[in-house]
UniProtKB/TrEMBL annotation:
Organism field: Sinomonas terrae
Keywords: DNA-binding, Transcription, Transcription regulation
DNA-binding region location: 28-47
InterPro entries: Homeodomain-like_sf (IPR009057), HTH-type_TetR-like_transc_reg (IPR050109), HTH_TetR (IPR001647), TetR_CgmR_C (IPR041479)
Tagged with keyword Transcription regulation: yes
Protein name per its UniProtKB record: TetR/AcrR family transcriptional regulator
């Protein structure tokens, strides 16, 4: 598959960044074109509408989430530990795509809501393969989601706020999922 043109990438990045920093209402077609340094005609060549921009953003998030699930499934420590360990917003492209999709979902955007639910369900399915108890698997999922939420906010992240490190939370994951002993997958 050929690489998308640089203007298309710049426009999509501008849309993503506007959603993250200013919200859906500020991510107008004019604002996206201006931020990307592309003419309005150039924007319309690549994206006929704001809906087309949103669809492209959600497709990019799906692709990034698929790669993340592949890493999660292959992680030697297991999906549960991987999920919690990587559930700190570290400013990656996937983080920006995820936050942008959340901003769309907050406006009731049905496509964004569906993609976010799809991604969460796929992550939870991987955790459930390792942790068959549904309540424990859900607790692990919610632990990671909480970490992500707090680390996405401005200010101090959970370690400073709650006095608990990610390593300590991984030890809780191990206890909840019944892991014992030392070696890969134990704290």
């Amino acid at each position: 598959m050929p690489r998308p043109p640089k203007a298309r990438e710049a426009l999509l990045a501008a849309y993503r960044d506007l959603l993250v920093s200013e919200g859906e209402r500020a991510a107008t077609m004019d604002a996206v074109a201006a931020r990307a340094g592309v003419s309005k005609g150039g924007l319309l060549y690549h994206f006929k509408s704001k809906d087309a921009l949103a669809e492209a953003l959600l497709a990019a998030l799906r692709d990034a989430a698929e790669l993340d699930r592949e890493r999660m499934a292959a992680d030697p420590e297991g999906p549960a530990r991987y999920f919690v360990r990587t559930s700190v917003n570290s400013g990656t492209d996937m983080d920006a795509l995820f936050v942008a999709a959340v901003r769309l979902a907050q406006t009731g955007h049905a496509g964004a809501l569906a993609v976010l639910e799809e991604i969460d369900a796929a992550w939870l399915e991987l955790i459930r393969r390792e942790v068959p108890n549904p309540a424990i698997a859900t607790a692990v999922m919610l632990m990671g989601e909480g970490l992500y939420h707090y680390s996405s906010l401005a200010g101090s992240w959970p370690e400073k706020t709650f006095g608990t490190s990610v390593g300590e939370l991984l030890a809780v994951v191990d206890r909840l999922s019944g892991r014992t002993g030392k070696g890969p997958g134990t704290a």
